[in-house]
Write a structure and sequence with these properties.
single chain, 419 residues, alpha/beta, Rossmann fold, twelve-stranded mixed β-sheet
């Protein structure tokens, strides 16, 4: 059950079960033989047992001096001094704190009554899949290939698997790749094995090579994006490449969005990022802010993964929801669209894998049409029925993240992956 609880405050999700729904029947070929498998995302990735230590509250931080090593030329903070960003973050936290505390408590108690939160083995680093991701580097190499961005290219999309079962001919970097069948497919791509969910399409490219997605010719009713926000810890760890906020304005959202498209952006807890999305990015695209939601991360025992009042890492992240308006003279309220409630919570046990967000497909259903076209930007995984773009779009599709068992229902047809 992917949605464990739905209530007035929001939802409690089983993020791992959400992933598994796309891999109940997978087709793989080996030496011209077909095998029917069931894929499950590895459960140890969601065994987050412990809260990460008690730390001083925001109020305490205002009263105490926080000793930080700085280069000699920089002015040291005075006793109890916070910078403007910290002041803004603290004010925002105080504004939403009660809604997050009470809503999470209600949803966690409901999930516990259903027997969902019963703890589990703690995740240790050596138990987690450790597949090295080189997709971003491959995107860089693809830029050097002749004709990778040919405007005259006739075919803007390609089938994942040809009639002969071959995938070696695929151009993943300059054409949208489609799996149009109702079954997932385990296929070799770029020397590795990946599992591609059913009824999905993707483009593997970086920010400068989005033209194939535009030439694909689709307009989307939902656009979800998780930008690689600038972050000091990410820069130090080099987990992924950050993108300056100002560059996000170059995303062709108005070209991709259908009238009244629901736009959802994941935002870090830095006040300047939230302010940028609300006051600059969305107005630049013609998107009207309609709500702010919160993803609240809890352990397998129902505790916040970080203390709620931590002055550093918070146990929640913000999602800014908006509606794309056709023109500057119209607004989201002037045309029909299901109203989006403010301050809804999405509570779940987070993945221990960095930047692995839960799917929003189920929680967005009440606010979009049944046959809505859905797009994810800066994606690191694929979803059934969605189109995804990013320079690591296959990151969590590697077969090392899944366990495999024989499928309960055999797939009868011998020619399944067809257009």
């Amino acid at each position: 059950m992917s949605v464990v609880v739905e209530g007035k405050d929001g939802w409690f999700l089983d993020a791992c079960a959400l992933i598994d729904r796309g891999y109940e029947r997978c087709l793989t070929r080996n030496a011209n033989l077909q095998s029917n498998l069931k894929g499950c995302f590895k459960r140890q990735c969601f065994h987050v047992l412990k809260c990460h230590g008690a730390v001083k509250t925001c109020s305490d931080a205002v009263q105490e001096r926080i000793k930080i090593e700085r280069p000699p030329k920089k002015r040291k903070r005075k006793h109890g001094e916070l910078n403007q960003g910290e002041i803004d973050s603290h004010a925002f936290h105080e504004k939403v704190r009660c809604a997050i505390l009470e809503g999470t408590k209600s949803l966690v108690e409901s999930a516990r009554l259903l027997g969902y939160l019963e703890g589990g083995p703690d995740a240790t680093e050596d138990l987690l899949p450790g597949q090295e991701c080189n997709l971003a580097s491959l995107c860089d190499m693809a830029k050097e290939l002749a004709g990778v961005d040919d405007e005259d290219q006739q075919d803007h999309a390609q089938l994942l698997v040809a009639e002969d079962g071959c995938t070696s001919h695929l151009d993943l970097f300059s054409r949208v790749t489609e799996n149009t069948s109702n079954w997932a497919a385990v296929v070799p791509l770029m020397g590795e094995e990946y599992v591609i969910p059913p009824r999905t399409a993707f483009l593997l490219s970086d920010f400068s090579r989005m033209q194939p997605l535009l030439r694909y010719g689709r307009k989307f009713d939902v656009i979800v994006m998780d930008p690689p926000w600038e972050n000091k810890s990410v820069k130090r760890s080099r987990r992924y490449r950050c993108l300056p906020s100002s560059q996000l304005k170059r995303l062709p959202v108005p070209c991709l969005a259908s009238p009244n498209c629901l736009v959802v952006t994941w935002v870090t807890n830095r006040a300047r990022h939230l302010r940028f999305v609300r006051d600059e990015l969305y107005p630049h695209w013609g998107v009207e802010v309609v709500a702010e939601w919160f993803w609240v991360k809890v352990t397998t025992q129902g505790q916040f993964v970080f203390p709620l009042d931590s002055p550093h890492k918070k146990p929640y992240e913000v999602l800014v929801l908006g509606r794309y308006c056709r023109s500057q003279t119209s607004s989201a309220s002037e045309s029909f669209s299901p109203p989006v409630q403010d301050q809804r919570l999405i509570v779940s046990v987070p993945s221990a894998l960095h930047s692995h967000k839960p799917s929003l497909s189920e929680v967005l259903k009440p606010y979009i049409a049944t046959e809505a076209m859905c797009l994810e930007l800066f994606a690191r995984s694929l979803q059934p029925g969605w189109i995804s773009w990013g320079n690591e779009v296959l990151r969590f599709q590697h077969t090392s993240y899944f366990t495999w068992t024989p499928a309960d229902e055999p797939i009868q047809s011998t020619n399944l992956l067809h257009h």
